[in-house]
Design a protein that fits this description.
The chain is of the alpha/beta class. It is 25% helix and 21% strand. The chain contains three helices and seven strands. The strands form two sheets. The protein has a five-stranded mixed beta sheet with strand order 1-4-5-6-7, with helices on both faces. It has a two-stranded antiparallel ribbon with strand order 2-3.
Length: 148
C-alpha cells in the first residue's frame, strides 16, 4: 500500500489568540502581546533564541488550535520562530523525563514535514541537557538557528 504525504500551505495565525492561561515575563519579539503559558525550560530556551539578531518573531503555538503536523499523531510543535532570512523554524521542547517513545514518534513527522516543506522550513525537537537520538540540546539549537 502506497502512503501519500502532503504538505499544504494553508495555516493562518489567528487574532485574538484563544488563550486560557498566559505566560508571565515573555521574552522580546513575541508575535503577540500575550502568549500561552510555558514551563521554565521553555522560557530559558526561548530567551536565548529571542536574543539572536536574526530572529524577527516567535510564537507559542497553542496546541490543537495552532499549527499541527497531523501525521499518525496530532503533533503541535511548541514554538514557531520567524527569521530575517524568511526561514520558519518549528521547535518542540521536551523535559529530560520525556525522552520516550512518544517523543521518538514526534521526531519523524517533524523531520519529514521540514524535508517536504522545503529549505525555508526547519523542525527541531530539543532537550535542555541530554538530547535523545534525532533531537538537539538547547545550546546546539541556538547555534544552529543563529546561522540560518
Amino acid at each position: 500500500m502506497l502512503r501519500k504525504i502532503k504538505v499544504k500551505p494553508d495555516f493562518k495565525f489567528v487574532n485574538p489568540l484563544p488563550l486560557t492561561k498566559t505566560a508571565n515575563g515573555i521574552p522580546a519579539k513575541s508575535l503577540y502581546e500575550q502568549e500561552g503559558e510555558m514551563g521554565q525550560a521553555e522560557l530559558r530556551m526561548l530567551t536565548q533564541i529571542a536574543a539572536l539578531d536574526n530572529v524577527v518573531w516567535w510564537h507559542r503555538n497553542p496546541g490543537q488550535q495552532g499549527f499541527g503536523l497531523n501525521a499518525f499523531i496530532g503533533h503541535y510543535p511548541d514554538f514557531i520562530i520567524g527569521l530575517r532570512s524568511g526561514i520558519i523554524v518549528l521547535v518542540e521542547t521536551k523535559g529530560e523525563s520525556l525522552a520516550n517513545d512518544d517523543s521518538k514518534r514526534k521526531i519523524k513527522p517533524g523531520s519529514k514535514w521540514a524535508e517536504m516543506a522545503g529549505s525555508q522550513f526547519h523542525y527541531f525537537m530539543v532537550f535542555e541537557n541530554n538530547a535523545m537520538e534525532g533531537a538537539k540540546q538547547i545550546g546546539k539549537l541556538v547555534g544552529i538557528v543563529s546561522h540560518l
